[in-house]
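quick one, 342 residues, struct below
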Amino acid sequence: MPNPAALPLPVLILLFLAAAAIILAAGSRLAGAADKLADATGLGEAMTGAIIMGAITSLPGIVTSVAAAAQNHPELAVSNAMGGIAAQTAFLVIADFAYRRANLEHAAVSLANLVDGAALIGLIALVLLAASGPEVSILGVHPVTPFLFAAYLFSKDVALKARKYPMWKAEQTTETRYDRPDDDHGKHSIVRLSAEVAFLGLITAVAGFAVAQTGIGLIETAGLQESLVGAVFTALATSTPELVTTIAAVRRGALQLAVGGILGGNTFDVLFAGAADAAYREGSIYHVMGADTVFLSVLAVVMTTILLMGLLRRQPHGFANIGFESFAVLLFYLGGLLVIAI
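---
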């Protein structure tokens, strides 16, 4: 791709929208393939959403953050990660509206999703810990970065064991939707489904690189702030697979897959910061985080905490069949974007 700064602004905008559309189209097919793969492998909706769908739909974002960091745009790299987490958490509000029977957080019962929510708060806290601590790097990488990846893997192990040997059970109600395989789950080839998911992931990753390049071009050509471009433009563009797959999963009745895809994807998204730190060669990327990016990180923690409270409270019905957490998450997200914009 040519130097994005050399392209006219209208061309940059068209390329940005085209890349986002490709991500959207590929993401729309992921939910069906992931749901079938969950049944075929026996991994379950929540874990498939957290590990497979979460990682695949996060590929555009991680490519964007790594490419931005490697090209000396650290603020764009980290704000894209934290902005994506906030945006994807807000997407659950849209999914909640799409599920008309009851509050989504009431119907989607999964201990694995609760573990992922708690892990997400801890992972973001590690990033903030690195940003507020001494500026240290070894071979250009901050010591917290490998801990981020280790903590992510540990959290997935805890979630898998929680699913296999649950020590906590939610109260069953008439609106509870458990993870039950489809009747035809044995007809689907694991190899074919895995190949389909991998192919869709490759498409979204390539489109994610295009989003990064056009995002950098918008910064340099239009003079926009890196944190604003990362928090709003690239974060929303690279997060469209999560939005599409979440709504598609809800319509299929795969509620745990929907919530697990968001929370699991968000835990994976924190690794964007770690990958960007490794790609950024000027030292610790955490210590060039501006006030807006720190604000985004704290906003993501607050929104995740509210979501966890909703999953634990399990309000059956609220206004328009959505619970208090959806209203609160949407209010904080829109308020946060307003703060970043001004």
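The mean pLDDT is 79.
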